[in-house]
């Protein structure tokens, strides 16, 4: 399998470190030249959930800086040996038209793009430049935290669902991606194909809309949300309001979704949610694509979401 990972943050470094032993070729694209040089020199240092440390130093991962890579290749020349899959592991605000076009230039007719973002909105931007109609969506509850430019901790095991975008051609919708699922499983990621990514994406959207802003505002780990009745009440308010929107949009959410939210908090109890990590590192969060997108839909549907409005404003104020 020939793979490319775009984005060497928490999720990108985790997946790269674990997949490196199983790929014929693995290229990791960083945003800065500094990080690509450091990774080429030191490899990725991965701390597992059981504190086992693993390094890819001396391995065969190729690290490249986004701008260098962009300048060195155009679709006219095309990759000599194309990638089978490109994993997009950047945050929502980084998915610009320019990045989507760059990714397109790195694809051939066989390459699937797999987009791993939380929230919603990325599917629309990416499908505009998806000439081959081979966009896959992924939702994952793995927990990861980047500790430095080259180090990452795997903070919680989860499950990864993969499936076609709703815009995907019915011909491609039938592909089972058996080899990819096998590869991810071998590398240690529980993985399933899903025929109903819309519900998976909505379920994950609600999980993040409940957990992420509260952890970011209160500066607590995911598991700590379950330790107080006050935070549990806030979680329930956010959950119920999000369900009103889903119901109005005729999305059939799983009955056990609330229980899933509790389970994710437990399974990633030591994790600083990605939104908390953004606030800690003074970065723009994904609030616009998570609670912000729910508020936008609610406005169109004439629904009021007071809990979401409040956490949205608080996270914006923190940003
Ligand atoms: N972390 C987690 O546990 C989980 C995250 N997710 C989701 O996965 C996605 C990625 O999250 P996460 O890994 O935490 O995010 P991070 O912020 O840790 O990583 C994103 C990476 O993308 C890089 N990047 C930005 N723009 C470009 C570009 N043009 N070219 C190459 N790289 C670029 C950033 O570089 P730089 O650092 O230099 O800015 C950064 O390293 C998000 O949507 C998140 O919600 C889902 C489940 C769990
Ligand atoms: C599952 C969870 C909540 C893990 O922290 C996550 O997706 C995130 O941090 O964005």
Automatic annotation (TrEMBL):
For whether the record's keyword set contains Glycoprotein, the answer is: no
The protein's annotated catalytic reaction(s) are: (R)-pantoate + NADP(+) = 2-dehydropantoate + NADPH + H(+)
According to the record, the signal peptide region is none
The EC number of this protein is 1.1.1.169
Please give one Gene Ontology molecular function term for this protein.
2-dehydropantoate 2-reductase activity
Which parts of the sequence belong to the Ketopantoate reductase C-terminal domain? 196-319
The chain positions of domain Ketopantoate reductase N-terminal read 4-165
Q: Give the family from UniProt.
A: Belongs to the ketopantoate reductase family.
- Name the chain's protein: 2-dehydropantoate 2-reductase
Q: What is the species listed in this Swiss-Prot or TrEMBL entry?
A: Paenibacillus violae
